[in-house]
Amino acid sequence: MKRTDFYFDLPAELIAQRPSAVRGQDRLMLLGRTSGAVEHHKMDDLPGLIEDGALMVFNNSRVRRARLFGVKENTGREVEFMFLNQAAFGEGCVWNTMVKNAKKQKAGMRYQFPDGSVATILDDPQNAGTEFRLLKFAFPITEEWFEKNGHIPLPPYIKRDDEAADGERYQNVYADQTGSAACPTAGLHFTEEMLGRLSQKGVERVFVTLHVGLGTFLPVREDQIEDHKMHEEIFTIEADVAQKINQAKKDGRPILAVGTTSVRTLESAANETSDGLIKAGTRGTSIFMYPGYKFKVVDQMFTNFHTPESTLIMLVSAFAGRENILAAYQEAVRERYRFFSYGDCMLIK
């Protein structure tokens, strides 16, 4: 399939630059997975749209302040880095990063960060010609260091600097496992009050962890989507969570994944077994789902509206059909829904 098969026109003013005034006060589109039928709701309506006994799966990864600015020692110019994850090799403390103006950031160059700490780019032939760089520090980098030096990594389509309010609003209320370079934003619509209402209805919930890196958000540059290679991301499923998911499948109860990262976690785990059951543990995934993929675990999906030609719109197209998704997105544009991370949401069932 071609990348352009997943393009749609989106007026710039529909790209949400800020969250709703009150968390959870967003619009919700209900999309029939097979019929393509669309209904317009509010997030407040969600409990009435979910079956009793459904199992909801959330990603509890928390966003770190992964966007940092270092001053290049030989020029005094500020350079922007996105810290993705700590590398599993190399002496000292080495981080995988994505850097702006990457062609000018070469091995041996040194950068000073706000607290005075210094890091050096390592030689990395594997990522030559890409925007990725290995950055080495002489001391371990802690979450306290990120809190002191970093910024909330708002997506590039949000055309403003991060603000104090983003420290709370660009986190899910249940997030407690720090490690993501971007928020699993489907969860931004949930409040403690909403989670309580779902529990009262008899909806079970469990948490998996997938730390969001560039595997989720790196643009598709190849004309043929089959040629796109996903970057690996790390996920964890605890033993009790795997047991609850497998039991729900055996009982015939619907599995509702909250966000594409939860979908990727569940399907990655199921693809490792011959019977499609979930296996607990921590490992990496580079799964890429596009039309033709057969889902093994996920029956329903709660998600945001995604960017044109992205792996995310390809994933939801695999789940509900490209024609259904593009028609629903056209309807969302006509109805002036707000798009992307701080925008409105969709329930597909």
Task: Decide which structural class fits the backbone.
Answer: alpha/beta
The biggest sheet, with number of strands, parallel, antiparallel or mixed sense and barrel status, is: 9 strands, mixed
**Span from first to last CA?**
25 Å
Mean pLDDT metric: 95
As a percent range, the share of strand residues is 15-25%
Number of helices: 9
Unreliable residue stretches? none
Question: How would you sum up the global shape?
Answer: globular
Q: Helical residue percent?
A: 10-25%
- Rg over C-alpha atoms, rounded to the nearest angstrom: 20 Å
Query: What is the element string, with H for helices and E for strands?
Result: EEHEEEEEEEEHHEHEHEHEHEEHHE
Number of strands: 17
Strand order, largest beta sheet: 2-1-17-16-14-3-12-13-15
Folded structure, characterized:
This protein has 349 residues and is α/β, with parallel strands linked by helices. The protein contains 9 helices and 17 strands. The strands form 3 sheets. Strands 2-1-17-16-14-3-12-13-15 form a 9-stranded mixed beta sheet. Strands 5-6-7-10-9-8 form a 6-stranded antiparallel beta barrel. A two-stranded parallel ribbon has the order 4-11. Helix 8 crosses helix 9. The longest helix is centred in the C-terminal third of the chain and has 13 residues. The protein is globular, with a radius of gyration of 20 Å. The two termini are 25 Å apart. The model has no long low-confidence stretch (mean pLDDT 95).
